Each structure stands twice: as C-alpha cells, then as structure tokens.
Amino acid sequence: MIINGVECCETFQTHEELIKAVNEKMPQEDALYDLAELFKVFGDSTRIRILYVLFEAEVCVCDLAQVLNMTQSAISHQLKILKQSKLVKSRREGKSVFYSLADGHVRTIIAQGREHIEE
C-alpha cells in the first residue's frame, strides 16, 4: 500500500518488543530539540563556507570577509550564530580577534555530511 508516495504495510500491526527497545534508547525531547537546532546552523551555505575557511587556518573577520568576498558585518552575523552554537571559538590578540573551529567534532560532522552526499 502507498500512502503519500511512501510504501507502507498492508495491515496495521505493531511490534511491542521493538517499540519498547527503541523507547528505552530514545533521547529526551529537549536533547532532540537541541540536536535539531544544531543541524539548522549547518543549513546555511555561508556558515558552511566560513567553517571550510576555518578548517585551513585561524583567521580574523577581515580575512574571512576578503576570502569569501562578503562584508565584515555579514561575516560577523554568521560568526555570532556559529559561536552561540559552540562551533567556533575566538581569541583576542591586540586589536584583532581570531576565529577557529571549536573542536574536532565540527570537522567530523562536515566530513560525514560531505561523504554522505558524495555516495
């Protein structure tokens, strides 16, 4: 049987042991919400481009703006979102602020996403 273009079971029958096992492993709703919010951050190509620059080097907003051919204001807006999501970190050096990836997880998430789309 096909419902909304998706193949479905011919009859409605649940598998209680399977449902119980899944429910025991299911994260809390707030954790799932936070995860969904994190993936929304990756849903913007400008933020992905910024992350790719940060894969290569620690850079300031001026450098990011130059490399990505964008305004400092536009870059700053996206960096704020990335920083709030704990994907990038910053450090001050004199009058400059340098940005880098927060940790290795960011690179792993992007690499696995890229591997998935290239299959």
Strand coverage percent = 15-25%
**Structural class, judged by helices and strands?**
alpha+beta
Tally of helical runs: 6
Q: State the CATH architecture.
A: Orthogonal Bundle
The number of domains is: 1
CATH C-level = Mainly Alpha
In terms of quaternary structure, the protein is: single chain
Question: Could you tell me the mean pLDDT?
Answer: 95
Residue share in helix: 55-70%
Strand order of the largest sheet: 3-5-4
Q: What is the CATH superfamily classification?
A: Winged helix-like DNA-binding domain superfamily/Winged helix DNA-binding domain
How does this model look, in words?
There is one protein chain. The protein has 119 residues and is of the alpha+beta class. The protein has a single domain, classed as Arc Repressor Mutant, subunit A, CATH 1.10.10.10. Helices cover 59% and strands 15% of the residues. It contains 6 helices and 5 strands; from the N terminus they run ββαααβααββα. It has helices at 16-25, 29-41, 45-56, 61-68, 72-84, 104-117; strands spanning 2-3, 6-7, 59-60, 88-93, 96-101. It has a 3-stranded antiparallel sheet. Strands 1-2 form a two-stranded antiparallel ribbon. Strand 4 (88-93) and strand 5 form a beta hairpin. The protein is elongated. The two termini are 29 Å apart. The model has no long low-confidence stretch (mean pLDDT 95).
